[in-house]
Design brief:
The protein is α/β, with parallel strands linked by helices. The chain has 15 helices and 16 strands. Among the domains are: about 260 residues, HUPs (Rossmann fold), CATH 3.40.50.620; about 55 residues, no CATH class. Helices cover about 40% and strands about 15% of the residues. It is elongated and about 80 Å long. The chain starts with a strand and ends in a 6-residue tail after the last strand. Bound molecules: adenosine monophosphate (AMP) and zinc ion.
Length: about 475
């Protein structure tokens, strides 16, 4: 195993990962609330989550990854005031919340699949684990960390002496918590609902020792994380907006219930922005992966685009930046597609140090911009020296990058070697902006019965049909 260093939001430092029982790493990442389409901002966070897992696996760890699907209890504010987002969506779409959940879960999975985001080992729906949420709530009531009121069971944030430690909240003035008008039953503005009561029109309700109701969003994640990964987990992640409320509350309720550290390492992805504004459903400036596909973008170009900034930094979205990412990805794919068969046997001497640089980059807090720079350097060097034996290293890197490079290669295995090498030569001529040479090569290939097409996925070669001759 290789050492992996990660920025831990809890300590505000880059730390060596020390899992409880290596090589196993227990990993919980917060999943979507399935009340609407996911937008590309959300998808940046899921690409990040997938990259975390792929990097740990590349380093030799055995990751057990759990992600939730929130299908009840996430209110219109993270401070759990307002209405349940699922209920609001159900009324808007004149469906049951179960149907809404089913529909948007399917769309979510289609999006992440298109991005080569690996499915978590456990994908758990909140409504399948109400029992665990009730048990955890009962434990908190028993321990005096929660109180029962007519509107719900609330966590008492003053029961946790270090409440606010993750976000380093300044609790003296309670400014943040007071931004939203708290429910009058709450003893302190930051107290939050573990179990909601007294909402007879809410469609999803379960019996509990305190009356019919439904769970709050924060308790869902704690209960499911502990159900599948135990009381202390190695790694927990989410978007940066989860730090001050959702993750703070997950820590408070979990640690009050167990007396143990809940998660050893906390990681958070920065926002995808437009200008200086985060992409957000509530701001109405969002668009989806299908919107991008409609503009001719390949989903994996978006994945590649995510690697152009470090995960903690904001990443600014523009069509132009995405187009540049797509073009670079096309170049990588074309290299992989049309490199000669000999590129698969053995390895050039210049590859070994690049392998080392790649591993060092990803294992230092997921430095993906550096990692893709190594990839491009390797292809440049292969072209420059006309020594193409780098494909195995590229496929190895792609275990982390997730750009489907092996699949791209296998699409062209049926091409005759002479055609493949001329297409490769034409790609290089295009990079050198030698368009006369590039056109001449295209004509030669055409004369032998093959058509070259430039597509969003890169140049494609297909046999000429009779009617096209
Ligand atoms: P939500 O559906 O709002 O619960 O968000 C789902 C996930 O996407 C959470 O992990 C958020 O932190 C994350 N997220 C929301 N907006 C953005 C954005 N503009 N950029 C990156 N991640 C985001
Ligand atoms: Zn969560």
């Amino acid at each position: 195993m290789r050492d992996v260093f990660l920025y831990n939001t809890a300590s505000r430092e880059v730390e060596k990962l020390e899992p409880l029982s290596p090589p196993r790493v227990s990993y919980y990442s917060c999943g979507p609330t399935v009340y609407n389409h996911v937008h590309v901002g959300n998808l940046r966070t899921y690409v990040f989550t997938d990259t975390v897992r792929r990097v740990l696996e590349y380093a030799g760890y055995d990751v057990l990854h759990v992600m939730n699907i929130t299908d009840v209890g996430h209110m219109t504010t993270d401070q759990d005031e307002g209405a349940d987002k699922m209920q609001v969506a159900a009324e808007r779409e004149r469906k049951s919340p179960w149907e809404v959940a089913e529909h948007y879960t399917r769309l979510f999975l289609a999006d992440v699949d298109a991005l080569n985001v690996q499915r978590p080992h456990v994908l758990c729906r909140a409504t399948d684990h109400i029992r665990e949420m009730l048990d955890l709530t009962a434990r908190l009531v028993e321990r005096g960390c929660a109180y029962v009121t007519p509107s719900g069971v609330y966590f008492d944030t003053t029961a946790m002496p270090d409440y606010g430690k993750l976000a380093r909240l300044n609790l003296s003035g309670q400014e943040d918590g007071a931004r939203v008008e708290p429910h009058p039953d709450k003893r302190h503005p930051r107290d939050f609902a573990l179990w909601k009561l007294d909402q007879p029109t809410h469609a999803m309700q379960w019996d509990s020792p305190w009356g019919r109701g439904y769970p709050g969003w924060h308790i869902e994640c704690s209960a499911m994380a502990m159900r599948f990964l135990g009381e202390t987990i190695d790694l927990h992640s989410g978007g940066i907006d989860h730090i001050p409320v959702h993750h703070e509350n997950e820590i408070a309720q979990s640690e009050c219930a167990t007396g143990k550290t809940f998660a050893k390492v906390w990681m958070h992805a920065g926002f995808l922005t437009i200008g200086d504004t985060k992409i957000s459903k509530s701001l109405g400036n969002f668009f989806t992966l299908s919107d991008l596909a409609g503009k001719g973008f390949d989903p994996l170009s978006f994945r590649y685009f995510c690697y152009t900034a470090k995960y903690r930094q904001p990443l600014n979205f523009t069509d132009q930046a995405l187009r540049a990412a797509q073009k670079t990805l096309q170049g990588i794919r074309n290299f992989v597609r049309y490199a000669p068969e000999s590129a698969l046997s053995g390895e050039e001497p210049f590859v070994a140090p690049l392998r080392e640089q790649f591993a060092a980059a990803i294992c230092h807090d997921l430095n993906m911009p550096q990692a893709v720079a190594v990839v491009l350097e390797m292809i440049r060097e292969a072209n420059r020296t006309r020594e193409p034996r780098v494909l195995e290293a590229l496929f190895d890197f792609d275990r982390v990058l997730g750009l489907g490079l092996r699949e791209v290669r296998s699409e062209t295995t049926a091409l005759p070697p002479t055609i493949r090498s001329r297409v490769a030569e034409r790609e290089e001529a295009r990079v050198q902006r030698d368009f006369a040479r590039s056109d001449a090569l295209r004509d030669e290939v055409l004369a032998e019965g093959w058509i070259l097409e430039d597509t969003p996925e890169g140049v494609r070669v297909r046999p000429r049909e009779r009617e096209e001759s």
